[in-house]
Amino acid sequence: MAQTKRKRRRKHRGTQGGRIDTRPARGRPRSRAEAKARARSGRGKSKKKSSGPRVPSAPSWSSAIKKRAVASVLFVGLLALFGQNPAASLLVGILLLGFYVPLAYMMDRFFYQRHLRKEAQKQLEREKERAGQQQAPG
After folding, report:
1. Residues 130, 124: Cα–Cα separation, whole Å
2. Are 53 and 37 in contact (CB under 8 A)?
3. What is the 3-state secondary structure of the chain?
4. Using an 8 Å Cβ cutoff, are 55 and 115 in contact?
5. Domain spans of the chain?
6. What is the mean pLDDT of each run of 10 residues along the chain (138 residues)?
7. How far apart, in whole angstroms, are the C-alpha atoms of residue 117 and residue 79?
8. Rounded to whole angstroms, what are the CA distances from 10 to 24, 28, 34?
9. pTM for the complete prediction?
10. Contacts of 79 (CB under 8 A, 6+ apart)
11. pLDDT attached to residue 111
């Protein structure tokens, strides 16, 4: 008996993860240049940007206050959850906020200055390397 199923004419474009490459409904296949352009434009849409090492932001009091305010509120909530007096847990939260905000600022400043020192060292090494390459042929 003859085979009734038609053979597929094109390769299925699914990935191992189960994602199917959706093309616009056109009568012709994408060219290589179109495929590359589409792949490049899709890269920026991902949530995780791993374009290089993480760069710490410059330290600021406002960022330190925001970070520690969230931690303080969580701590007060945790104390209240364990049955502590709400007034006492609020007082402890305020004391922690007063202690941790300067600590957070100093820690941010330490990491930012360490990052700047490392970048300056890399720049110095690059300049030495460039100067060494210029002198080597002579």
Report:
1. 10
2. no
3. CCCCCCCCCCCCCECCCCCECCCCCCCCCCCHHHHHHHHHHHHCCCCCCCCCCCCCCCCCHHHHHHHHHHHHHHHHHHHHHCCCCHHHHHHHHHHHHHHHHHHHHHHHHHHHHHHHHHHHHHHHHHHHHHHHHHHCCC
4. yes
5. 61-131
6. 68 70 61 83 62 80 90 89 87 89 93 94 89 69
7. 41
8. 15, 12, 18
9. 0.53
10. 88, 89, 92, 93
11. 93
Find tokens 């189960």 and name the residue: 18
Token digits for 69? 């305010």
Give the tokens for residue 90: 């609020």
Q: Which two tokens stand for residue 53?
A: 């090492």
| The amino acid at 118 | K
